[in-house]
Task: inverse folding
């Protein structure tokens, strides 16, 4: 069964077809997993929480009395596994230890009552554990992987005759690039350096055996997130193994129509394509493959996966209207933070995908390149005629010719307009819309900044990044979030910040933009 995300639907997912993805065993065999690097992290501090009062504790062995909780702070957000030694002190142990544990990415999560959370997402993603311990002493080693900075231990209903005590806490952090160094932007303004460091930390945590979209929830490979993360990686860690694996994983699964899955589940014994499909994600795959080949000069991967990209483009072409426009579709994602009409945004992605396929066709000497070059010319002509309103200096979208910021951002990322026309669109975009309120994901905020950089609006691009990303820093972010609304920092599309990702791959994009556009001390 294949599904499509519909943000306005109560169910959020809508069935669209009975198609299924088939595995290409030869390509899948090339998707070799990287070896994860690890390091042991000791908590930076510990506190005993009694009611609303927190007391810092420096003892090696910490006793937790009835009514108290123990909070470990790792100092930064990490991804990995936790263990702690536990023993009993006082009278003989006359009852089990019942321990509630919360692994939290932010301090704000510690005060949320998980029992009150209602969400259309599985509540099993909440990083809470309940542990019965019959005999002490022993090491409590938690088998699951967590994304956290804070670890909250609360003995529940404990005996009054004895108390648990904890020692030797350690967190084993994991990442494919855990110990790799990234050259800092020492010539850039201090706020740029701070944002960049948090972007790099975000990417580092999400680079596991694949580029994970978020480290708390999903923990899988999503096409759109992957492209953003890979671009950041190419200018920071310069890792080739992880993006190569992601491309082979995605390219290993096609359905009979030539479509790719929106995501791949990779923590199973064998990778499995999820039964989800989004039209625009097929376009993103083609762009991501071209960018990988450009960054790595990996000719073998180009030749192995070009047939996949070409087959996907055949499907894309079959879906276009007679005038080569996308037309109204339900099976598109683009960005979930808005209820805007997304047709024009996807039309822009079609143009970018065809440009990327032309680049790949040159790399592998495909004689069909002439067809794609002609297709691009016709696409650009039709797109201007259908979507561009020269009188308003704005792009429209959909049957109602809606004017929204999403359309402008994506169209500005193409080469469709002359530079004077692009400047007029940008003037309208910046004056007409409250972009901080209407674009609340780092994904679209990053693309907005890229569109501004692309057309020489450096000051506005940096101002937008500073406003949005330092807003998260001011609210205590170690790594950047899945969603951020400055007017409602606790906003969650899932019903609770316990389900929000606070280390999310698509929010690392400024690290790419800073380097591509050479941000320095003169900015």
Result:
């Amino acid at each position: 069964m294949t599904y499509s995300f519909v943000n306005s639907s109560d169910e959020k997912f809508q069935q669209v077809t009975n198609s299924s993805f088939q595995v290409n065993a030869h390509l899948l065999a090339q998707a070799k997993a990287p070896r994860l690097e690890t390091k042991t992290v000791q908590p930076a501090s510990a506190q005993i929480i009694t009611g609303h009062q927190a007391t810092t504790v420096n003892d090696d062995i910490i006793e937790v009395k009835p009514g108290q909780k123990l909070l470990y702070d790792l100092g930064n957000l990490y991804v990995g596994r936790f263990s702690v030694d536990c023993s009993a002190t006082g009278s003989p142990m006359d009852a089990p230890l019942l321990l509630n544990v919360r692994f939290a990415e932010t301090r704000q999560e510690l005060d949320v009552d998980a029992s009150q959370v209602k969400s259309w997402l599985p509540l099993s993603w909440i990083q809470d554990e309940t542990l019965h311990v019959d005999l002490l002493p022993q090491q409590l080693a938690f088998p699951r992987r967590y994304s956290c900075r804070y670890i909250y231990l609360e003995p529940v209903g404990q005996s009054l005759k004895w108390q648990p005590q904890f020692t030797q806490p350690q967190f084993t952090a994991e990442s494919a690039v855990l110990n790799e160094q990234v050259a800092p932007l020492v010539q850039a303004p201090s706020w740029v350096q701070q944002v960049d460091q948090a972007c790099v930390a975000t990417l580092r945590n999400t680079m596991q055996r694949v580029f994970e979209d978020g480290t708390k929830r999903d923990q899988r490979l999503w096409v759109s997130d992957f492209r953003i993360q890979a671009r950041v990686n190419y200018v920071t860690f310069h890792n080739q193994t992880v993006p190569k694996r992601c491309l082979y994983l995605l390219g290993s699964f096609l359905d009979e129509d030539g479509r790719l899955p929106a995501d791949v589940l990779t923590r199973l014994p064998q990778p499995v394509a999820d039964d989800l499909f989004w039209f625009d994600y097929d376009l993103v795959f083609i762009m991501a493959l071209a960018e990988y080949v450009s960054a790595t000069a990996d000719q073998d991967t180009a030749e192995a996966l070009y047939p996949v990209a070409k087959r996907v483009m055949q499907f894309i072409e079959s879906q276009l209207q007679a005038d080569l426009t996308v037309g109204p579709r339900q099976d598109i994602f683009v960005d979930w933070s808005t209820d805007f009409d997304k047709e024009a945004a996807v039309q822009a992605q079609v143009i970018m995908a065809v440009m990327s396929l032309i680049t790949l066709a040159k790399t592998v000497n495909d004689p069909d390149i002439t067809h794609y070059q002609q297709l691009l010319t016709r696409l650009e002509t039709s797109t201007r005629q259908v979507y561009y309103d020269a009188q308003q200096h704005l792009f429209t979208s959909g049957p109602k010719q809606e004017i929204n910021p999403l359309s402008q951002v994506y169209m500005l990322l193409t080469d469709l307009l002359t530079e004077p026309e692009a400047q007029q669109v940008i003037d309208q975009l910046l004056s007409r819309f409250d972009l901080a309120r209407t674009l609340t994901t780092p994904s679209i905020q990053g693309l907005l900044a890229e569109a501004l950089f692309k057309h020489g609006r450096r000051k506005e691009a940096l101002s937008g990044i500073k406003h949005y990303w330092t807003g998260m820093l001011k609210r205590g972010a170690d790594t950047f979030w899945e969603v951020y609304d400055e007017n409602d920092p606790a906003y969650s599309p899932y019903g609770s910040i316990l389900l929000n990702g606070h280390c999310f791959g698509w929010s690392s994009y400024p690290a790419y933009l800073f380097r591509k556009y050479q941000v320095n001390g003169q900015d």
Observations:
- The two ends are 51 Å apart (CA to CA).
